Each structure stands twice: as C-alpha cells, then as structure tokens.
C-alpha cells in the first residue's frame, strides 16, 4: 500500500501566477494554507481540511497544487473513485497508508478529488467499501493533529456537487471555498496564461472573453480552446493565433450551471 501511496506524490510546478482570475480565492488559500501553516501563533491550530467546491474545470486542482508548491510541501493527489475501483475492499488501508506517509513526509498536502464519491446522501446506494473508506478518512482528519501538533498535513478536498456531502464530511471542513467560473477579466488572463510566448496581438480578447463568459466556459474549456487554436496556427504555419476567435465553440459542451455559491463559505 505504501508503494501505491508513494506513486500518488506529484511534484508541484504550479505557481500562483499560473492561475488566472480567482483573486479572492487565491488570497483565501494563501492566507489559510501558507500563513496559518508557517506563521501562525502557537495558540492557533492550523486548518486540517479545506473544501474547494465549484463547477468542473475551474482550477481546483491547480489551486491545491500551487498551495503545495508555495509551502514546498509533499503533494499527494488522490481521486476517491480511483482508489475505490482499484482497491475496492482495501481502500481503508490505502487511506491509512496515505496519512502515514503524509506524516512521514510532512509538511504535506493531500488533495482528495471527488470527495462526494464517498458520501451517503446521494440515495443510500453507497457501497460498504466507500462507507468504510470515508469513515477511515474522517478518523484520519480528526486524529493525528492531536498527537503531534507540529506536523502539518493538510487535506484539500474538492467536489463539483457539494450538496451530496453529508454533515459528517462538512463538519470536518469548516473552511469552504467556492471556485467559480471565470468572468471576463479572468477569461482574458487564462487565455494569456495558456498562450504564453505566442503572438496574440491580433486577437480581439474582449470579444472572445464576452462570448466565452456567455457560454459559461470554464478554465479547462479555455485551455482546450487555446490548444486548438495553437494547432491551427502550426498547421497553417501562421505566426499568430487568429483562429482563436473563429473556433467552433459549439463543439464544446454547453454546461448547465448547477454549482452555485450556496451558503457555504
Ligand atoms: P475538476 O473539478 O473537473 O476536477 P478542477 O476544478 O480541478 O476540475 P483543474 O484540473 O484545476 O480543474 O483545471 C483543468 C485545467 O484547466 C488546468 O490544468 C488548467 O490548464 C486549466 N485551468 C482551469 N482553471 C484555470 C485558471 N483559473 N487559470 C489557468 N488555467 C486554468
């Protein structure tokens, strides 16, 4: 199990300025993660868990990765559904091993994606394996900090469906951060980040941003759009990215914007 867990460690190369928009979210993350971890007065316990929630592709993984990078922390990236499908009956051992290694290699950040895959609320169809995995996770979240308070292991959990989380989970994540779809300003920043080093001077970024926001594009959609435009540019041996404005937006999935800020922060 330890071997499996070691493979979950990724080297974080993401910097805060690789993330477009999300100014407020980045500030909150920096304050919560960096300041409370490094400069907190002794009387304050560091946060153990932060919940990032919002529509898919809005940068939750990027934020967790940037937080790990800025702390120089060991970064474990875990998808709950992967652990369950791979180690069905033994997912609890994976979780225990995960936190054991995270403590050994502290400071650590455990990024637990799709935490909703483990919870009960959805309809009572939760499997025994996911129930046990969740209960081990909650025990880990409760437990270790008391044993040795100078070991920092921070769990960042992410979900697109916060309404699926039950009280047992929510109560372990008192700090909850909404990661929204990009507005026009953020959209322009994300396009610039994803076209670094390329000539975008002929692009009407305002028009592209307006259209993208109207279509509820996420950061991931924008990245895909940029990639597509770069391919056109290479294929046509062009020097600029004029196709970005002409790309078949329709091909990208239109989303229904279900995830709203809720009363969650
Ligand atoms: P999911 O909920 O589907 O797991 P997510 O919210 O974790 O998605 P990420 O994996 O962080 O989203 O983002 C996917 C990709 O989209 C990133 O690798 C990045 O290239 C791009 N992206 C998303 N948001 C931003 C952003 N704010 N700034 C720059 N790039 C972004």
From TrEMBL:
Q: Which residues form the AAA+ ATPase domain?
A: 46-183
Task: Give the domain of life.
Answer: Archaea
Molecular functions (GO terms): ATP binding; ATP hydrolysis activity
Q: Does the keyword Coiled coil apply?
A: yes
Keywords linked to the UniProt accession = ATP-binding, Coiled coil, Nucleotide-binding
Q: Into which family does the record put it? A: Belongs to the AAA ATPase family.
Name the record gives this protein: AAA+ ATPase domain-containing protein
Q: Which residues of the full protein are shown?
A: 104 to 368 of 398
């Amino acid at each position: 199990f330890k071997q499996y867990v070691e493979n979950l460690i990724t080297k974080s190369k993401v910097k805060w300025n690789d993330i477009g928009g999300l100014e407020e979210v980045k500030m909150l993350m920096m304050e919560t993660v960096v300041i409370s971890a490094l400069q907190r007065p002794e009387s304050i316990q560091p946060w153990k868990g932060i919940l990032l929630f919002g529509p898919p592709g809005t940068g939750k993984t990027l934020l967790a990765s940037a937080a790990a990078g800025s702390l120089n922390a060991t970064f474990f990236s875990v998808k709950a559904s992967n652990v369950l499908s791979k180690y069905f009956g033994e997912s609890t051992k994976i979780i225990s091993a995960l936190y054991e290694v995270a403590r050994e290699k502290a400071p650590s950040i455990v990024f637990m994606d799709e935490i909703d895959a483990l919870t009960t609320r959805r309809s009572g169809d939760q499997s025994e394996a996911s129930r046990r995995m969740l209960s081990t996770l909650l025990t880990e979240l409760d437990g270790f900090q008391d044993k040795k308070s100078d070991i920092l292991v921070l769990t960042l959990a992410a979900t697109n469906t916060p309404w699926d989380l039950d009280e047992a989970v929510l109560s372990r994540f008192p700090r909850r951060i909404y990661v929204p779809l990009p507005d026009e300003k953020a959209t322009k920043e994300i396009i610039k980040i994803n076209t670094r080093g390329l000539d975008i001077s002929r692009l009407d970024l305002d028009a592209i941003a307006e259209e993208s926001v109207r279509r509820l594009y996420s950061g991931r959609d924008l990245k895909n759009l940029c990639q597509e435009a770069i391919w056109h540019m290479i294929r046509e041996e062009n020097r600029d990215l004029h196709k970005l404005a002409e790309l078949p937006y329709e091909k990208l999935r239109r989303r229904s914007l279900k995830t709203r800020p809720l009363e969650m922060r």
